[in-house]
Amino acid sequence: MKDIKTLVQNPPRGPVEPVQLGLEDTIRFRCHKDIDCFNQCCMDIDITLTPYDIVRLSRRLSIGTAEFLALHAVPFEMDQHGMPGYKLRTREDAPACQFVTAEGCGVYEDRPAACRYYALGSMGLRRKDSPVVDDIYFLVKEPHCHGHLEDRTLTVGEYRREQGVEIYDEINRDWRDIVLKKRSSGPTVGRPSERSLQLFHLASYDLDGFRRFVLGSSFRETFDLAPEIYAELERDDEALLRFAARFLKQVLFGERSIPLREGVRDQRIERRRRRLAQRAEDGGAPPHDPRYDDAEETD
Ligand code: SF4
Ligand code: SF4
Predict the structure, then answer these.
(1) CB of 20 within 8 A of CB of 121?
(2) What residue ranges line ligand 1, CB within 6 angstroms?
(3) Ligand number with the minimum distance to the CA of 100
């Protein structure tokens, strides 16, 4: 089982139907426990995890998000600037998923979006000079998967509803669009600072750590948010994920997506001025020397 982002970059062993599908298009597919290929799709996986996947799986396993990443995920770089990503870890002795059992998926109710979609693939497509990201779908036809031979047709929209993937797409959408925007803007945005990469990692993958960061005194002194918003971010994972995407727009693109407290902007300009002066005094430092990143700054 390979997710579509991987499929697009690395042609799979099995063919991907070269037809873009929309929500109203019809597919022929059915997967069930009695099929002769049961579990085959979980024996050789390459699954990129989204922020919501990580939260659902870590809550399912009753562990924190940092512990989940350490135990069940493998880091990789999503682009030439080192934007961090994670894949689902496989077993030590085989490319099989750690969660597959003889009875099927051991985390079925909380399985990742890529597993829900299979044998469909989905991707966001940002056309050149367009601010809008289109959702497109593909049928993934790998030889081992016999679900394509079953006698059932349904639309892509019906399949997404059946597989419970809509909530995943809804919560991950802003994050995915940020990643796409970062990728498509290339050299015009440039390599993010070390601090921005750390914040991207925190807000995207370690939601428990991001919650501590947001509820900490430094964040509260910087951003002007109502107490009821902090209360919601403290108790509600999904609200915190949506907030994380707003925060990342500020971190990566300098958008004013979260209001700053009065006076904070002037203090920052002054701090930046002092850092630049210090850099010049030191004889000029590399553009992304971490010594010149301000640990408190987020934009
Ligand atoms: S999470 Fe479940 S469905 Fe996805 S690869 Fe693992 S066992 Fe298969
Ligand atoms: S039909 Fe396809 S998706 Fe279902 S168990 Fe078989 S290989 Fe996996």
Answers:
(1) no
(2) 1, 42, 45, 97, 99-100, 105, 107, 111-112, 115
(3) 1
In a domain, 27, yes or no: yes
Ligand 2 centroid, distance to 36 Cα (angstroms): 9
| Residue 154 exposed, middle or buried by CB count within 10 Å (0-12, 13-18, 19+) | middle
pLDDT attached to residue 81: 85
What total of structural domains would you count in the chain?
A: 2
Q: Collect all residues with Cβ–Cβ distance below 8 Å to 122 and sequence separation of at least 6.
A: 4, 135, 136, 137, 138, 169
How many Å apart are CA 247 and CA 242, to the nearest integer? 9
Q: Is residue 196 included in any domain, yes or no? A: yes
More confident residue, 20 or 129: 20
The reply to whether 20 and 108 lie within a common domain is yes
Domain of 131, in residue numbers: 4-168
